[in-house]
Amino acid sequence: ARWQQLIGEELNGNIDSIRFIGCSIIAHNITSIKDIESLLSSPYNRYEVIILLNQQHNPATVQHIIKHYRLTRVNNDLTRDCPLHIANLYRSTCRTYRRLVLVDCDSTDIYSTMNAAIGFASYDYIIPLQPHTCLLPHALESIVTTLSDSSNNNIGLLYNNTISPCYVFQRDVLISYGGVSNDIIKKLPRHAVIHSDIAFAYPNEYKNY
Question: What are the φ/ψ torsions at residue 129 (nearest 5 degrees)?
């Protein structure tokens, strides 16, 4: 695979871009442990999965996720200063689940909660993921391979909508245009948008076929 070739080249000192590319998957209202496991299963190294839930609306689900992944509350100044109040922020005490972050928001609005989560994101590329959407195997590797191309240095958005829409935003660009919204793609300059021929995501219901 091309991504494996690129990693090999990096290890041999031929390129140095891949190790600097990290992705923060921000998943709104994903409640299934199986779906979370799927998001955590990528062999790629530099990514995290931020799950956004409202504990008042999903108390049993949130507690189940906390128990399953051995999450502990790690509230800090960010939770107090965030424009949209974040009730709680959780991370796992288990190294196996170090990529998982659970954010308890007091809003169910998808755009408000995703924009709040950008403040907690650790990486430069943001992948907003809607409910009932799963990433394809090796999607992150495909994304990183495209982003590592030197001709894509000024990319603001990488996307594919072949099977199910999936968008990868450069974090600073996304923030500068007001964050995630229903018209964010229209706001971005055309030269900063790249379409990939490779699918990144698929609808959850396809799992049953």
Answer: -120, 125
Neighbours of 10 (CB within 10 A): 15
How many CB atoms sit inside 10 A of residue 108's CB?
Answer: 15
Q: CA gyration radius for the chain?
A: 17
Spatial distance between the Cα atoms of 22 and 106, rounded to a whole number of angstroms: 28
In tens, the pLDDT along 171-198 reads 999 999 999 999 999 999 999 999 999 9
Give the ranges where 30-90 is alpha helix by DSSP (H).
33-40, 59-68, 77-81
Measured N-to-C along each axis, helices 33-40 and 59-68 cross at an angle, to the nearest 10 degrees, of 40
8 A C-beta contact, residue 3 and residue 145: yes
Burial class for 41, CB neighbours closer than 10 Å (0-12, 13-18, 19+):
exposed
The letter for the amino acid at 20 is F
Strands lying side by side in the sheet with 125-129: 71-73, 86-92, 100-105, 47-53, 23-28, 125-129, 166-170, 157-160, 193-195
Residue ranges with strand state E in the chain: 23-28, 47-53, 71-73, 86-92, 100-105, 125-129, 133-135, 157-160, 166-170, 193-195, 201-203
Q: Are 157 and 170 in contact (CB under 8 A)?
A: yes
Question: Is the separation of the CB atoms in 155 and 194 below 8 Å?
Answer: yes
Give the span between the Cα atoms of 187 and 190, in whole angstroms. Answer: 9
- C-beta separation of 73 from 55 below 8 A: no
Q: pLDDT confidence of 112, banded at 50, 70, 90?
A: confident
